Amino acid sequence: MKCFFFKQKSKSDPDLNRKKKKNHAKKSISAHSSPRSIKELYKEKEHNFRVFTLQELVDATNGFNKVLKIGEGGFGKVYRGTITPENGIGNPIVVAIKKLNTRGFQGHKEWLAEVQFLGIVNHPNLVKLLGYCSVDGESIQRLLVYEFMPNRSLEDHLFSRSLPTLPWKIRLQIMLGAAQGLQYLHEGLEIQVIYRDFKSSNVLLDKKFHPKLSDFGLAREGPTGDQTHVSTAVVGTRGYAAPEYIETGHLKSKSDIWSFGVVLYEILTGRRTIERTLPKVEQKLIEWVKNYPADSSRFSLIIDPRLRKQYSLDAARKIAKLADSCLKKNAEDRPSMSQIVESLKQALQCS
């Protein structure tokens, strides 16, 4: 699924390496009469990241060997790598290393956003950023080093026929964890964070299939004070972005809710949000499922056939109704993430 970007590249923020050299003295939270910005919050925690040299990451990936490539997106390529602990003591650590494509859409601004957002968050359902590498000059390099997620993404397990079918209950548990990650971003920080790119490929899975949200390059601070939205250039992924955001550029937390509803229908049906290989009337998932309402006798026809009826129909109806509430045309009519979390817990109980 390709991303769309309708914006001019803005002037890059100063390089993080230069920020490292600044004095770490900080004002207390109480000294601020209003919520601090992402940059202000990040300054308190930037020392927690490991700064890698380019050579360390070249060595970690055997020269960015194609055999070690595990993903590719708007940012660039992602490699599996092995690094030594910072103190040189202990076993090597397997990591994921994201290497910026300097000619791609997501440039230094998005790289910096990801470092800063992941620098201030701490939640079991958000991927952990271990460090970064930033090189300027003739050959500009921007890299990020994350914890390694061995079970790839929710997208891979839903749509790849080379992987075992993801059981019904595991699907719900993954969505519950993802919802708790979004709830934390929307409601659990000093400032609100709008993720802006929720989709099945950004839900990564650890060895126990616990989900973690990844790729924060498009994340934005939410509205503050009397603001109802943030005005921004429209970026995201076709099929997942909320219609009012695409039409107006007005971004709010309820934009993430729409995207969550789309993925709920993906786990129900086993179909991608846009599937060009299907008959025309079935290509757009959200339009197609409208023909099979949750309370209708035809509803079960949309359930992923790979589940082989190994699911709770009652729970499936609850998930469809929850998805429908997330996909309300009026953004204000959509539920909050805390309400979604509770609904998913209830659906799991009857699964």
Automatic annotation (TrEMBL):
Alphabetized GO MF terms: ATP binding; protein serine/threonine kinase activity
CDD domains documented for this protein: STKc_IRAK
Top-level taxon of the source organism: Eukaryota
Keyword Kinase recorded: yes
Domain Protein kinase: 64-348
Binding residues annotated for ATP, in chain numbering: 99
InterPro entries named among the record's database cross-references: Kinase-like_dom_sf, Plant_Ser_Thr_Prot_Kinase, Prot_kinase_dom, Protein_kinase_ATP_BS, Ser/Thr_kinase_AS
Region Disordered, annotated ranges: 8-37
Biased amino acid composition, Basic residues: 18-29
Keywords recorded for this protein, A-Z: ATP-binding, Kinase, Nucleotide-binding, Receptor, Serine/threonine-protein kinase, Transferase
Gene3D superfamilies associated with the record: Phosphorylase Kinase, domain 1 (3.30.200.20), Transferase(Phosphotransferase) domain 1 (1.10.510.10)
Transmembrane segments: none
Sequence similarity: Belongs to the protein kinase superfamily.
Record protein name field: Receptor-like kinase plant
